[in-house]
Amino acid sequence: MLLVSNRLPVTAVVDANGVHVESSSGGLATGLRGPHERSGSLWIGWPGELPKLRAKRRSELDERLAELRCVPVHLSRTEVRRFYDDISNGVLWPLFHYMVDQVPQEARGWETYREANEKFADAVVAQYQPGDLIWIHDYQLMLLPKMLRERLPGANIGFFLHIPFPSSEVFSILPWREEILEGLLGADLIGFHTPPYLRHFATSLRRVLGVDVDVDRVLVQGHEVRLGVFPMGIDAAAWEERAEQPGVIERMKEIRSEGGEKKLLVGIDRLDYTKGIGRRLLALERLFQLDPSLAERVRLLQVTVPSREKIGPYADLRRKIDELVGRINSTYGTPGWVPIHSLHRSLSEEEVTALYKAADVMLVTPLRDGMNLVAKEFVASRTDRDGVLVLSEFAGAASELGEALQVNPYDIEAMAHRIRQALLMPAMERRSRMRALRLRVMSHDADRWSQSFLDAMRRNRRELQARELALEPTASPMVIAQTLQTAPSLTLILDYDGTIMPFAATPDAAQPDPELLRLLEQLAARPGTRVHVVTGRARQSMDRWLGHMPIGLHAEHGLWSRLHAGEPWILVRPVHPRLKDKVRPIFEHFTSTTRGSFIEEKTASIAWHYRLATAEFDDQNDFGDQQAKELRLLLAELLSNEPMQVLSGSKVVEVRPMGVHKGVVVPLILSEADPQAHTLAIGDDRTDEDLFAALPADAICLRVGDGPSIAPYRVADPAAVRVLLQQLLLSPEIVVDQDVDREPAALVS
């Protein structure tokens, strides 16, 4: 694995004693340090600002970095100022955090940003070996995926954004919006912390580039890019272990004794206008106004870690914070009590852990934050299962840490009330909330985060390779038909809509025609042949149309099954229909705003059909499709933590329970089949991919129509499927010449 980020996890330092390195601070460096050390990866990045070095010193530095499996990308002071300060932190950082007022009126340095990304591309190409995974991190390198795709077409490239991705309206402000999106689309997998960030990115692709996103994937010039949500964790075990060190425990006791019986509020933030430090201080001031009895019973220890102070807005921020602390202390302080102790310096991990353990209430109240690992570090450090976390709802961590007291940092009054609630919370409630928080933080750590992302990269590559193989079949469908003609026993597994029956405008209009009924009867009567129809339709429709036939029926994507005519239907998996209640209002809203669409409800799933919307009411023939894309993105966010799955079919969006898919009926079908039987499965959409994947390796799978599939063979349309099935009824001696005119148009291998 090649890890690529703006900064290395270490910073090079040159002094009179020679060249040495120090560990870098920051969430990315600390979050990936453990996976890097354990995986044997190479880390490519900037080693920090260095003076001009003689050849001997430069060689010493490179050797020391090589020992740590780090590859430096050296940038000049001018490059750092324009690429890092002016563009990355001067424009991209504030805009992606919705701080539009902090974006300069005239942004300069974009050419240098592009050139710096090219330097990183040179370093990656120099280290790359076939089979390597390339994992790029964060907003400083958003052009790099495309650059690498052009130079390493076969590489497996991942990109993870550690900050929020803003709404499309905000993102569109950028002068280089097209180039940034095109740069990111060079990756195979793009990861975000939360579902809203993914949704904003998908919407920006559609509105800026006109590129459509199918829930979690986008196809651009033949290249498929997958999108995923991977909430970042921390090295939770290391924080927990550090919290039990004798020195940390001793320091924690000292911190508590310094305040006597006073409750301790703690804030630890990098100096940044996104962290909401000023509003936090105003909330504390408002708390003393709301409840004067808390004066001299509460103290805040605010640690502000120096950062980017050469940039004007950061220097102004420090001055404003100092002024605010001075004003509040002078207004409310007494000879024996100072409300706010402000420290402007970096702390060691041991000092930070001691503060986490000493805090009665931890204040993490950013105005906007991609994730915020401080909240998770606090939870991991509380081995005593005590303490209260007050967390901004605009931090990415809020979507995971629901047991924290969540606040809107823009609402000073409400934040003051939340802090008071935290200070007065009963011990039983504190411990109950902390137990739940620790369970999530300790299990969803940095290793799990990195492993889930890398597993997704590898899985995507395997699927891509399977599709490439599927485009090179070893035999045509007609040759397969001739082969199966001689099979002594045969199991046929057929999808309904789009496979043996053309699509209809409404569900009830898809009744089987006499030709299809006759074909199914003949196939069922063929010696040694069992026919099964596996469909997403309701079992009532299947009973009404095909229930009298001697075939197996499997409805609602395998939820209901009936192996033989006359037998009762069986529920294959227990489900909770109440989950439909969560999405029904959304479906109803889209139905009311999309003429010609309608809702279909089944036992445990609910579907939104829009075939009529695009065919009858929309001159552009794409309004229904655009509505469906918006609906899928909304559902993906809404159901991110629910055991429900969003499916996209032909002019239909369906929500079904997790674990219910066409593949679950395969064991039932094969349990009654001859072990020596040949199996032929045919389907036309993504729901049939589950069926194909569940079948044995020797089963023959055919995909109807275009689109990615693991099936190695294709037919063009339902008419071609019927031609193929009719061939199975012919004697082996009869050749296919009778239909030779049909084959080139209808059958595609």
Nutshell version of this structure?
Helices cover 43% and strands 18% of the residues. The protein is an alpha/beta fold. The strands form 5 sheets. Strands 5-4-1-6-7-8-10-9 form an 8-stranded mixed sheet, sandwiched between helices.
What can you see in these coordinates?
The protein is of the alpha/beta class. The strands form five sheets. The protein has an eight-stranded mixed beta sheet with strand order 5-4-1-6-7-8-10-9, sandwiched between helices. Strand 4 (42-46), helix 2 and strand 5 form a beta-alpha-beta unit. The protein folds into four domains: 2-229, Glycogen Phosphorylase B (Rossmann fold); 236-444, Glycogen Phosphorylase B (Rossmann fold, 3-Layer(aba) Sandwich), CATH 3.40.50; 471-573 and 660-746, Rossmann fold; 577-657, Trehalose-6-phosphate phosphatase related protein, domain 2 (Alpha-Beta Plaits), CATH 3.30.70.1020. The chain contains 27 helices and 28 strands.
